[in-house]
Known about the structure:
The chain is of the alpha/beta class. The chain is built from 13 helices and 19 strands. The protein has helices at 2-17, 20-36, 38-49, 53-76, 125-133, 146-162, 176-184, 197-208, 230-249, 268-283, 292-304, 347-354, 374-381, and strands at 82-85, 88-90, 93-95, 98-104, 108-111, 137-140, 170-173, 190-194, 216-219, 225-228, 261-265, 309-313, 316-322, 338-344, 360-366, 384-389, 428-434, 457-459, 462-464. Helix 9 (230-249) links the parallel strand 10 (225-228) and strand 11. It starts with a helix and ends with a strand. This is Aldehyde dehydrogenase (NADP(+)).
Amino acid sequence: MDGLAGVAAAAARWAEDLPRARRADLLEAMAAELDADADAIVADADRETSLGEPRLRGELNRTAYQLRLFAEAVRDGGYLEATIDHAGDTPMGPRPDLRRLLVPLGPVAVFGASNFPLAFSVPGGDTAAALAAGCPVVIKAHPAHPDTSRRCFDALVRAAETAGAPDGLLGLVFGQQAGVELITHPAIKAAAFTGSPAGGRALGALAANRPEPIPFYGELGSINPVVVTGSAAAERAAELGRGLAGSVLLGAGQFCTKPGLVFLPDSEAGQRIADGIAAEFLARPQQPMLTPGIREAFERRADELTVPELVRAPGGRLFSVSAGEFTERMADECFGPSTVLVRYRDEADLRATLAKVPGSLTATLHTGQSEEVGELARELRERAGRVLFNGYPTGVAVSWAQHHGGPWPSTTSALHTSVGMTALRRFLRPVTWQDAPEAVLPEELHEVPADGARVPRRVDGRWQPRH
Length: 467
């Protein structure tokens, strides 16, 4: 590990000094290499995960798209938060010349996910964000898809070599012990992880207990509650039954945004929704899960739920409980094709039960037309990083406004996202230069930057879209 992490540290200066236009070109070249090797990548991923060619081609398209979108963000430069306060008098007295910019942290460790072998693994969003920020990346491949990891890594390396990158811009390791050595190596300055709460806790402790602690960005377990109001149930029970079942069972329930709790009114309309979900569970064939071990863990966790089972079918397992009988233990994530229906009598019953639900990536509210739900929406906002209305959470668009994060235990930091352009912020730190000669300043902070260094800036408190 010393050799791999050491060359990553040596490559950090090259990555930071690479002009933003060339860094953007590098990201786009990586996307092009993935596109060029798409058939082989999808074949490997399908053999190792059984996710199916249509799903995997869509995931590969997403992976290439987010690399290209990060390239656009790098060219724009707004993510640098360039800020200048000129020297002058203030009500507090004289102020020095202050210039602030975000700079790369240094080498980043990325731990690949099991359920997204492309979009959240070797070429995924964490890798793309770290490279876009100007950081070398050492990736710990997930054991569920080693061949896919290697093939994707080789595609990224081909693009890096064409761009003239030194050894160390990208690294790849396999095995649990290698992951431990990676996150504890002094050359690593941050780590990103997508996986189980147990794995995240262990890695987070290693990151925090180093002689030099480092930021650890973990996406862990998420229950993603869905609330259906009485009005919504009365207006579209059949539609909600089909839609909720489809969201739960998508990808064999292996999405981090799967609805794990569905709150239904204890009414005739609520029962129609429950019956519709049950019918879909019974009609669906069993879907292969990512690994036999993940299937075994799902069945074991489902057996441990102290909740009455409504449906046990090849397609999935459906549980149902009244709000009065609901306990916090029932809100633990069950990774796989299952969900728990929670029947509530009235809004007071619903609010009391929501208070037992832990933090999640998403919370969803289905309402009737013109229904006033401001307080209920605020309640859900306190428990999630993304609040959806009249939709389904299993789908995370890559965009500037996206937030894929939430309160513990869904992530280790509700301040940051692992999807979208602001994911770069995890791998950057602010530096302020005071009364610095222009020769030592980053070009983006020069009084009159060169054309290639012009970025949006805030100067003396006023926003300048592009200087």
